[in-house]
Amino acid sequence: MSNNLDVIFKSYDIRGVFGDTLSLQDAYKIGYSFAEFVDSDTILIGHDGRLSNKEMLNAVASGISNSGKSVLYVGLVPTDVVYSLSGLLELPGAIITASHNPKEYNGLKLCNSGAVPIGEHSGLLEIKNNIKNIDIGVISNLHLETNNELDLYFEHIQKLVKPEKVNSQIKFGVDGGNGAIGSLFEDLSTIYNFDCEKLYMEVDGNFPNHPADPSNIDNLKEIIKLVQEKKLDFGVAFDGDADRAVFIDDTGKVVSGSMMTTLIADYLSEKKDNLKVVYNVNVSPHALTILESKNISLFRCKVGHSNIKAMMKELEADFGGEHSAHFYYKDNYFADSAILTLLMFLTIISERGEKVSSMIDKYNFPPSSGEVNFVVEDVDSSLEKIKTVFTGDFDELDGLSYFDENFWFNVRGSNTEPKLRVNIEAPSQKILDEVLEKISTTI
């Protein structure tokens, strides 16, 4: 048993370097403790395409089995498949993944029955604290077989987005990043009759082409090039476990998470009065101004899927958007889904019949930094330094949010890495650059 539980248990999931900070003994005990925490006698379990997933699966599933509970194995799938099935089957779920982290990492995202999130304030600390009471048992080489759960998932998404709503003449590019989206994309393509150009759809835990992290512009170069050279209507790049997708417009520009939040919420508000939307602290103030003008009720939340889902469920909110490109849907058990977002995006384009760039340009977004990451020795001390160089009050719901008449920024520590994540919006690129320079030289 490693002594790294404080390292691997994050605010809303579990992540560590496999064989170092995250051992098989840890994985076994996490499985056992998770099984004891939930009421159900059966637990869904799936995994992405990481190299260590077979070992992790055996360890976690052995822990669950040795606790006296059953495992329902759903195979190699995107994270949002486990969330949706958790809702459909009313079962707790575990997905073995480290999302966009490098290949040596692995981890777990957990949910309770009905896709109810398990984060630090909703069970994750209890699961962690119970581990010390668990003895290591036998980790077996289990022979787990999938059934027809994926068919249930495909039926579910077709109820949310009917195939006939998607114009099959739309041509787009997709970069799977060698992540989990490749495990079912062909099935999706058949159901919705996609016309798309594909990059790196083979699931490969070595991530041989580029990291499966679409938040980094360097990892979007090839999908941008593909969209521009093939004159496609848009592009989309998925992260490693395919619960997050970043979109590219027809000109090759990145459509930010704030822009997508605006576009989808605006569309949904046309279909339903009194729409409720939850957003996180680094969604653009410009986006919020637009949505307020549409008579949409807005609710501000800390970053993180467990935080967003919990607030959405409490409020019975219809949609949730994060600037990091996670998008949440009431009809999907309040869970985030990049697959559903792709289908929603296709539906919007199909209905409006406009170029993506034209739709976004109408919102007249000011210059934005996107998410800029800084590696720092200590997150808290870096935040304190920033507070000394800007006058006035800071909102500290999650990190630091600063509202000046000429600019806005949010700076917060990553929950998974020793980094500060900075987002800035300003009326001109000059002001934006000055604010970013002031922050970067301070930390």
- Under the CATH scheme, which class of the largest domain? Alpha Beta
Average pLDDT rating: 96
Fraction in helix:
25-40%
Number of discrete helical segments: 15
Counting structural domains, the number is 4
What is the rounded Rg? 21 Å
How far the N terminus sits from the C terminus, by CA atoms, comes to 36 Å
What CATH calls the topology of the largest domain is Alpha-D-Glucose-1,6-Bisphosphate, Chain A, domain 3
Give the overall silhouette. Answer: globular
The largest β sheet comes out as: 6 strands, mixed
Low-confidence stretches: none
Verbal overview:
This protein has four domains: 5-149, Alpha-D-Glucose-1,6-Bisphosphate, subunit A, domain 3 (Alpha-D-Glucose-1,6-Bisphosphate, Chain A, domain 3, 3-Layer(aba) Sandwich); 157-254, Alpha-D-Glucose-1,6-Bisphosphate, Chain A, domain 3 (3-Layer(aba) Sandwich); 257-361, 3-Layer(aba) Sandwich (Alpha-D-Glucose-1,6-Bisphosphate, Chain A, domain 3); 372-442, Alpha-D-phosphohexomutase, C-terminal domain (TATA-Binding Protein, 2-Layer Sandwich). The chain is built from 15 helices and 20 strands. The protein has helices at 5-8, 24-37, 53-66, 79-89, 124-130, 149-160, 185-192, 221-230, 257-271, 285-293, 305-315, 338-352, 356-361, 379-389, 429-442; strands at 14-17, 42-47, 70-76, 93-96, 105-112, 116-117, 171-175, 195-199, 234-238, 245-248, 254-255, 276-280, 297-301, 319-321, 327-329, 335-336, 372-375, 400-404, 407-413, 419-425. β14 and β15 form a beta hairpin. The protein is globular. It starts with a helix and ends with a helix.
